[in-house]
Amino acid sequence: MKVYHYFLIALLVILIDQTSKVLVHEYMYLYETIHVLPTAESEFGFKLHYILNPGMAFGIRWESEFGKLALTLFRMVAMFGIAWYLVHMFRKQTHPGFLICLGLILGGAVGNVIDSIFYGVIFNNAPLNSPTPWFHGQVIDMLFFPLFKYTWPEWMPGLGGEEFLFFSPVFNIADSSIFLGVTSILIFQKRFFKDEHAAAEGVAQPAEAAAVEVPAAESTPPPAAEESAAPPAQ
């Protein structure tokens, strides 16, 4: 594969991510929930739930004006850093699987950067106290997978009687792409970097051939020359 193929993977993620966010914004109202699987009004399953997230991935929020701006700037730096790193690792002829993961991470990062920079202007969704809609757009999240609900036992300190919902975060395609890329790198890192792992293991292990002492060859003394007995005088 050529290096631009991995950037096409990132572009595909961006297109899917942005299309899904625009469709949710246009055809759903804020906090609306659509049941996908199962289609009945079930409390659990796969749902589309439209929310705005001014913070980080998976619904994590950073509640401060400086924090939001810093997060947007960090995402921009990370976006260019990942792009440079992808090209760098391609030139080193790294495993294609690792480069695909970088493409997924890059696409997810760009997807959320677009939200943060432009959505405050395009969709007018910046928080009310924002000094400017630029760089303060809120990320559109919609993927919701509540699996089960559990009530903590009364005897548990601090949690007794409270309900716990798994899995509660609401996220988007960009978050999913980043998560998939990072998780795949962690799982398959030995396959992606098998040469580096093999070299590290080779350095760690002593060379057995050098460690084994070859005993000096024992020289067997030649048999003593038989003394020829002089024949008795006749």
Compute the CA-based radius of gyration.
33 Å
Instruction: Work out the count of structural domains.
Output: 1
Which term fits the overall shape? globular
Largest beta sheet: what is the strand line-up?
Answer: 1-2-3-6
Largest sheet: 4 strands, antiparallel
As residue ranges, the low-confidence spans are none
The SSE order reads HEEHHEEEEHHH
Helix content: 40-55%
Distance between the termini: 103 Å
Mean pLDDT, to the nearest integer, reads 84
Number of strands: 6
In short:
The chain has 234 residues and is an alpha+beta fold.
What does this structure look like?
This protein is α+β, with helices and mostly antiparallel strands and 234 residues long. The protein has one domain. The chain is built from 6 helices and 6 strands; from the N terminus they run H-E-E-H-H-E-E-E-E-H-H-H. It has helices at residues 3-27, 65-91, 96-122, 173-192, 194-204, 208-211, and strands spanning 33-37, 46-53, 139-144, 148-151, 163-166, 170-171. The strands form 2 sheets. The protein has a 4-stranded antiparallel sheet. Helix 2 (65-91) packs antiparallel against helix 3 (96-122) and helix 3 runs antiparallel to helix 4. The model has no long low-confidence stretch (mean pLDDT 84).
